[in-house]
Design a protein that fits this description.
Elements lengths: L8 H19 L6 H8 L5 H6 L2 H25 L5 H18 L1 H10 L5 H18 L10 H15 L17 H14 L1
């Protein structure tokens, strides 16, 4: 008798998503296979294909969960008492980078899956972006539209993608400015433009 027979559909689906996130953390995207995920959960190797219509559907569901996690991480920075709008923006930027470092394989998968997103993934990614948009709103004027928030997100994402927060050797060909100083430069440039 299958030990998971009594499990609800939602419970198995949730366990499969969590197993996928765990495998990503341990083996990067190469380790993300339906068989490995099923084995980790203790279900038939056909179960992930059944619940998600194959690996692409499961990858999309994992990416969707990643954006939910990122949204929660960014939202939590708004609950912290800070003294200024800039502190709130800086806290969100720091949280974005920390999330990407702590979940590097998941973070890459999230943005890889946005190349051809499902409607659910698009909606969740937009909700995540909306949290970032809210911390940028004090620096955005109506005539410039979303220009500042796109630039701020680009700085955060670029900083993350280039791993600019990593220590550099004294002989490195360039000195990386701090994220805080980059955000301040962006605010000044936005005010002048």
């Amino acid at each position: 008798m299958n030990k998971n027979r009594g499990q609800s559909r939602g419970c198995v689906r949730e366990k499969l998503i969590l197993a996928g996130i765990k495998l990503l953390a341990e083996h990067d995207s190469e380790g993300l296979t339906l068989r490995r995920i099923a084995a980790l959960v203790g279900v038939s190797h056909a179960a992930p294909a059944h619940y998600f219509n194959g690996l692409p559907g499961l990858r999309s569901a994992i990416a969707e969960r990643g954006f939910q996690m990122l949204s929660k991480t960014l939202s939590n920075t708004q609950l912290v008492t800070v003294t200024s709008d800039f502190d709130r923006l800086e806290a969100a930027a720091d949280a974005y980078i920390k999330f990407s470092e702590e979940n590097s394989a998941l973070f890459r998968l999230m943005f890889d899956e946005l190349i051809t997103p499902t409607p659910e993934l698009s909606k969740t990614a937009i909700e995540s972006y909306d949290v970032l948009k809210s911390v940028c709103s004090p620096f955005t004027s109506s005539e410039k539209g979303d220009q500042f928030e796109i630039m701020a997100w680009s700085v955060m994402h670029g900083y993350t993608s280039l791993q600019m927060n990593r220590p550099r050797a004294p002989t490195a060909p360039f000195i990386v400015p701090s994220l805080s100083s980059m955000l301040r430069m962006l605010i000044r440039a936005n005010a002048v433009a």
